[in-house]
Amino acid sequence: MTRARISAALRALVLEPEPGVELDTVLDRYYAPDYTHRSDGEVLTREEFAGMVAAVRTKVTGGTVTVLDELGDGTTYAERHVFRITLADGSVQHREIAIFGTHAEDGRFRHLSETGFDVPPQAR
């Protein structure tokens, strides 16, 4: 069974969405129905996560994600990446994110916890 990877999910959801493919269809590919998402202490249900992703999609015009570390052991998943996105207002965000979580039995994400920080300009 193929396990979901966060880099593929980010590309499909925000960075390189397929024209004409509904958000719920993409979410179903990567996230289990009982998915929960924790970001800097705030926990979202899958429905709340979908709302957050929909809002982000309206603001992002493009970007890249580079995986720095990624590993899995059974259902346990960990990954660290940097992303650089351009927003509709022309501003750019460059962040490093660390993610820990679990996969459901079918390989989709069941839970992810993330935290991150802005990459300083001198490190870009």
Estimate the mean pLDDT confidence.
Answer: 95
Compute the CA-based radius of gyration. Answer: 14 Å
Question: What's the helix count?
Answer: 3
Strand order of the largest sheet: 2-1-6-5-4-3
Q: Report the order of strands and helices.
A: HHEEHEEEE
Q: Roughly how many Å apart are the termini?
A: 36 Å
Main sheet characteristics: 6 strands, mixed
Strand count: 6
- Helix/sheet category: alpha+beta
Low-confidence stretches: none
Amount of helix: 25-40%
Approximately how much beta-strand content do the residues carry?
over 45%
How does the overall form come out from the CA principal axes? globular
Word description of this protein:
The chain has 124 residues and is of the alpha+beta class. 26% of the residues lie in helices and 49% in strands. The model has no long low-confidence stretch (mean pLDDT 95).
Brief write-up:
It contains three helices and six strands. With 124 residues, it is an alpha+beta fold. The mean pLDDT is 95.
What are its keywords?
single chain; 3 helices; 124 residues
Secondary-structure map with pairings?
Layout: H1 6-15, H2 23-30, E1 31-39, E2 42-45, H3 46-59, E3 60-73, E4 76-87, E5 92-103, E6 109-118
Parallel strand pairs: 1-6
Antiparallel strand pairs: 1-2, 3-4, 4-5, 5-6
Helix pairs in contact: 1-2
